[in-house]
Amino acid sequence: MPAPNQVFAYGTYERYKSTQRIFTQWLKDTAKRLASRSGTGSDASGTVVGAAGASSDKSSTKEKGREKENIPLEDRNASFVASEPAKIHETWITRMEKMVTTIVENAGPEDIPDEQIINLKVVLKSRKEVSKFYAGDETVKAQNASHQQIIDVFAGVLHRLEDLKSRFRGNGQTPQGTVENNHITNRFEPLGSPNRNPGSDGETSSEGEGFTDNAGSTVHNNGPKDNCRRKQQTSKRASGRTSSSTVADDSSSPFVRNEWVDGFHFINKENELGPDNEPEPDNQPDSDNELDPDNDPLDDYMFIYCFFEDFNNIRKYISALWQDYYNGGSVHLNALAVTTNAAFGLFSHIEELIMTDLQKQGRAQPKFEHITNVLSPRIEVYSPQGDLNEGQQSDKTRADEKKKRLARALGRHPSEEWGIVTRPERQQLTDRLINKYMLEAAATRVLKNIKRPQDKSPRLPGETHLLSSAEEVLDSKTLGLSDIFCMQLHIDIRVALGHKVGNVFTTMQATGRTVTQTMEKHKKNAKGSRASLFRLLDDWQDCCQKTLLKDITLGGKNAVFKALDIDVQAPEFVLQKEDPVWAGLLDFGAKLVSNDLGDQFASVVPLIEAATYLYCAAKAAAVKVDIGLPSWPDMEIFMNTHTSDSVFKIGLLQSPALPFTILSNWEKMMATFVTPELPVRSKAIAGRERSYEIGIRTSLFNRYSWFGERKQANPSQSHLSNQGYLDEVIFRRLLKKDKLLSNANIKRAVEAARKRSAAGGRAPEMRPRPGQGSDGDKSLELLQILDDTVTKLLDGGVLSLDYFKLWDESVRLLRKVNKAFAEDFNGKLSGVAGVPDCFVVLPMLVAEELRKRATEDPAQCEILGRLVDTVKKFLEEELDLHVV
Fold first, then answer.
1. Residue 296, SS3?
2. Which of the residues 197, 209, 420, 547 has the least number of beta carbons within 10 Å of its own beta carbon?
3. What pTM was computed for the model?
């Protein structure tokens, strides 16, 4: 079941249930509405009763005619399987037939939307696949026969609805208010199997599944040697990204500009809110439960099939990405680590939602428990008891008890045993960064690889601490399906990387050294208005040294060794060297926190913004006199972190771009500065609308930062689930246009969705965009969007921007400009020229000098010529940038 007000469905099973729920609800609502409109009544069980005033003869004749026209609900080509379990669905089948009959006899063209027919096709396709999956299992033959009967009923419903639609088209009637096929083909194909052969069961594979293998293929364990697979994977991956970007960047899309709110709705029924933010009462009679898809006793089998389907598809996708990274493909390490960890999270989240749903129904889960028991790793313990005498057995028992007491004591008093970090600090890191099983797996690997030295006293025959310790690790808790699958995916990654696994660790340590050096350099600049940031920079420097340059797990491992009487030091960096996901996420987290801290540091006083206005004024003047001015890539990225409707950006984008106008706009912005008692920050800049990249960075920060407090949650996004970072990233990526991402617009989308939910469905004018519906986003598509988004942020986006470096460069440019205009400024900055913050007024002073000359012609204005020369010389000599 989806989380409260969850935006996206993550798993195949969850999307299947949501799609079936939508169709079943539409069927019931439409049948009741059409029965009322045609003058007939419909009781709670779906029985259609003739109107009270109808003529008996005429009614009888009419009913007989209708009976002749009725088409059996079972598919004509399907074989009916009579079995005891199938009898429980007789009432359900009867009600379905009556409701469909009511719709067929009374519906107009506008009453049968294409959307619901596609929903039914999705449900039918999914059920057929599950039935085929269990066809050879004799233990569930009866249940599968019952399932086949349901499939036949759904096939009959589909046949009748499609026949009705074809008759409408044959009569020349055009449906009004329905969803066009070209808008929803991709949206409502949530369960398309990437492993299906094109044309199987009369259906074709989705175009968005080019990243998967052909039917029947498996991920080979020879990873790096599979060059053909890598080339195929890379080309398909690149084409997929291009397609995604094209859709998102289409600024001419009317849906993006005007109607995006109509496409947003909650996917779950249980948490739909009314106008007063209270749950809507359930007005459905109890008898409707027979049609409720949540009461389907076959869900246990659907769950198992869908879970394995998701796992296999995700496993192939992630493994292929790591193979591409190994072969030097276009995969960014940090994006790959984030996407892989998101896959781990998806496994856990899907399992949690499904188990909650099944437990709510109070049904036993023998199949789930059976699968778990089969897959759970077990160590075949060699029992030495037959080789021990009575005294040795007693000694072994006492040794085991002593070992357990030491382990329990270690758990109660951990603070002195964890070395450079305390156990709570380490817990915070693992909670925010990655699944904790990685640490356990690495610790077990260390225990297995270390040879215990020979004790002074002989050990008991056949006893090994390593064997018993590994056994305790696995037997200490029950491993779920998601844990087992995560371990399997971890093995796939290690196989794909081979001997290059240590390269990730090397990259991580290089990042750690860069971050610590940057913090040390800029702590001296954290004074005056930035003094409050000194402690943050110092703490982050210390944190990076502990987590990236030192082994935070070493103290814990040594404590475990001590408790187990292993008198050797554990080797350093085993986890970081052996687990590329862990090292990659540490590297990504360090860049993420440093980027956010740099933004805070630079935002105290708008020196970068002042340098931006001087740079843009020089560019505008250079164009007038035909002088080539080098582009400043970092500054261009910085400007893109502001939306086009922000005061900061408006001052730069006025047409025509005149130097004097640009500098004068900065003067207007300076007039809005707050009083010195408050943070020295322009109201216009502090209240600016940040680009969608900043919102995504905040979402990723809240998920992957183990330093400091999480960012304040946006109250307009309180509808997001506890898997919120993924929801937020996808949500913002799909609605990336600046005007759409204001808090007011997001809040408006939520309110509109709630009103439609309270009204019993979606807005009739909804025209969803392809691939962006909440029921139609596949797990792989979600991971692709996440990977693509993080990659864009790292390659030319906000996460590629070093705010500290840009701040240094901006201050140097401001010093150059101040020196070039020192005589004109007539000592206005004298006495404070050594303090960078004073340079924030430089654009104002240059504008004042231009105003004195009363000219805007760069060819006749020596002031602008001097500005262009100063900026050009700085870019070429200081930054080594040149005109291309």
1. coil
2. 197
3. 0.69
Whether 570 contacts 316, CB under 8 Å = no
Q: What is the pLDDT of residues 388-446, one digit of tens each?
A: 677 777 776 776 666 565 555 444 444 344 456 666 776 767 666 665 545 555 555 55
**C-beta separation of 590 from 511 below 8 A:** yes
> Which of these, 485, 442, 492, 438, lies nearest to 224 by C-alpha position?
492
CA distance 210 to 307: 21
Q: What 3-state class would DSSP assign to 631?
A: coil
Q: How many CA atoms lie within 13 A of 858 on its CB side?
A: 22
- Cα–Cα distance for residue pair 129/137, rounded to 1 Å: 14
Structure tokens that stand for 22 in this block: 């939508």
Cβ atoms of residues 708 and 324 within 8 Å: no
As a whole number of angstroms, the distance between CA 876 and CA 615 comes to 13
CA distances to 121, 133, 145, 157, 682 from 70, rounded to whole Å, are 21, 33, 25, 12, 73
Are the beta carbons of 843 and 663 closer than 8 angstroms? yes
Complete DSSP assignment for 375-422: HS----PPP-GGG--HHHHHHHHHHHHHHHHHHHHHHHS-TTTSTTS-
- Are the C-beta atoms of 301 and 130 separated by less than 8 Å? yes
Say if CB 585 and CB 447 are below 8 A apart: no
Dist. CA 89–CA 71, nearest whole Å: 19
**Cβ neighbours of 367 (radius 10 Å):** 14
H/E run at residue 783? helix 779-794
Q: DSSP letters of 138-162?
A: GGGHHHHHHHHHHHHHHHHHHHHHH
